[in-house]
Design a protein that fits this description.
24% strand; 5-stranded mixed beta sheet; alpha+beta; 3 helices; Alpha-Beta Plaits
C-alpha cells in the first residue's frame, strides 16, 4: 500500500505570514510543519513503512502490509494533514486529492 500525506493549506498560511511581514510567525509555523513531517515519517517507519520521499509538507510512503495509524492522533493541532491510501502511488494521490476535496484533515482509502 502507498500512503500519500500532505499538510493542509501550509503554503497559503506561510504566504499570509510573509505577506503581512510576520516573519517570526512564518518561522515558527515552518518549524511546526517540519516537526509534524518528522513525527509522521518516524511513526510510519516504526510501523514498517519505507519513506519514498519526504519534503516540505509532503510524504509518500510504501508498506507491504496495510498500516493501521491515524496521523491526527500524534501530531499537534496547529497543522492538519490529509492522507490518501491506495494500492499504487497514483491511487494514493487520487485518494489524497479526494481527502482534500472533502474538507481536508482526513484519510481516504481507494
Amino acid at each position: 500500500m502507498y500512503y500519500s500525506i500532505d499538510g493542509d493549506e501550509v503554503g497559503k498560511k506561510l504566504e499570509y505570514y510573509l505577506a503581512s511581514d510576520q516573519v517570526d510567525k512564518a518561522i515558527a509555523y515552518s518549524s511546526a510543519v517540519t516537526d509534524g513531517v518528522t513525527r509522521i515519517c518516524t511513526r510510519l517507519q516504526l510501523l514498517g513503512a519505507e519513506i519514498l520521499f519526504c519534503g516540505g509538507d509532503s510524504i509518500l510512503a510504501e508498506s507491504v502490509n496495510r498500516l493501521n495509524f491515524d496521523v491526527h492522533s500524534f501530531v499537534g493541532d496547529e497543522i492538519t494533514w490529509s492522507v490518501g491510501v491506495g494500492a499504487t502511488p497514483s491511487t494514493a494521490l487520487l485518494a489524497l486529492k479526494k481527502a482534500k476535496a472533502l474538507g481536508r484533515n482526513q484519510t481516504v482509502t481507494l
